[in-house]
Design goal:
With about 325 residues, the chain is α/β, with parallel strands linked by helices. It is about 40% helix and about 10% strand.
């Protein structure tokens, strides 16, 4: 069924959310015109625990079928849009669900996983996280996992990884990788934001960057204005072009503070790890008042227009760039 999308098509794609899922949020996706969302179904969970998360999602799909549908391919996203539903893509923010068994990648691919981060802030069996002092790069297992992910059509995501590991992932991957939710360090120097070297290599390899709206990644944090956010996008487009950029909001709507503690601490420490910029406020930071839910994507569109982007560029940034990326990235090799 594959259909070529041109600049006249309108798609809204968010390439990362981890909300406290509910009927209210699924309704907001539809009201906000959000056509596709990449959702996190695992942070530190092992194989069995992640299966339980899939069970929850099966219940969501059954209970809220008027709003959402599971999608594992470009064509399934197109069908979801035609049926006026939001396509949900599954991803991991850590390789924990494959444990130390590379064969589990194929199991997860068959269950619908289409993205996996090689590390989440810390060193993993595969790569180094952005909070580590030393970055030895991609491990022996990491290189094998990248090769297998390429074969299966699972996107290598380096959003929470350190620079050397990210650069080596780009080099070792036969397919373009993604940084689904981070911002340029030239705009705001958070540990999670990406250096010019990483961005240059990412875009040169046709990889994708999703701009994050998580306040710790924003200039002025929760007080970041929509104009400031859109100026960041404009500066990135001026430096690197606009065909490989999109949105990866990192929206964690309605999540309790206990969840952000789980994200940061997992099982690796017995002490509180408050994360970058959070020692005085260990919970979730407040979202900017212009982006609190899936109904607020229109504010980004309006902001991009105000900055000077034309409709073709806006449509590309808001969704078509991700769709073009999905079309080739999710195809399993013969």
């Amino acid at each position: 069924m594959s259909t070529e999308l041109d600049a006249g098509n309108i798609f809204t794609v968010d390439c990362l959310q981890y909300a406290n899922w509910s009927k209210e949020i699924f309704e907001q996706m539809r009201k906000g015109g959000v056509d596709c969302v990449h959702v996190t179904i695992a942070y530190h969970e092992n194989f069995r625990e992640t299966i339980l998360n899939l069970e929850k999602w099966n219940d969501y799909f059954n209970s809220h079928s008027e709003y959402i549908v599971h999608a594992g391919s470009y064509d399934e996203i197109l069908i979801a849009k035609k049926n006026e539903k939001t396509a949900i893509i599954f991803g991991f923010q850590n390789p924990s669900p494959i444990e130390d068994d590379i064969a589990l990648l194929e199991v997860w691919q068959k269950l619908g996983i289409r993205f996996m981060q090689l590390s989440y802030n810390n060193q993993s069996l595969l790569a180094t996280g952005c909070y580590e002092e030393d970055d030895p790069g991609i491990t022996r297992m990491g290189k094998e996992v990248i090769r297998e992910m390429n074969r299966l059509g699972i996107v290598v995501d380096m959003s929470h990884s350190s620079d050397r590991s990210t650069l080596e992932a780009i080099d070792h991957s036969s397919r373009p990788i993604a940084i689904t939710h981070a911002n340029p360090a030239f705009w705001h120097s958070a540990l999670r934001n990406k250096s010019n070297d990483v961005l240059e290599r990412l875009f040169a390899s046709n990889g994708m960057l999703g701009f994050s709206l998580y306040p710790h990644h924003l200039n002025n944090g929760s007080n970041c204005t929509v104009t400031d956010f859109c100026e960041m996008i404009a500066r990135t487009a001026e430096r690197f072009g606009s065909k490989n950029i999109g949105i990866g909001s990192d929206l964690c709507q309605n999540q309790p503070d206990s969840v952000v503690e789980w994200m940061r601490n997992g099982r690796w420490t017995k002490t509180k790890d408050f994360g970058e910029g959070t020692s005085s406020n260990p919970g979730f930071p407040s979202q900017p008042n212009w982006f609190k839910s899936n109904m607020d994507f229109s504010n980004i569109k309006d902001g991009l227009k105000h900055i000077g982007f034309d409709n073709t560029e806006i449509n590309s940034i808001m969704g078509l760039n991700w769709m073009n990326f999905f079309k080739n990235s999710f195809v399993r090799e013969k």
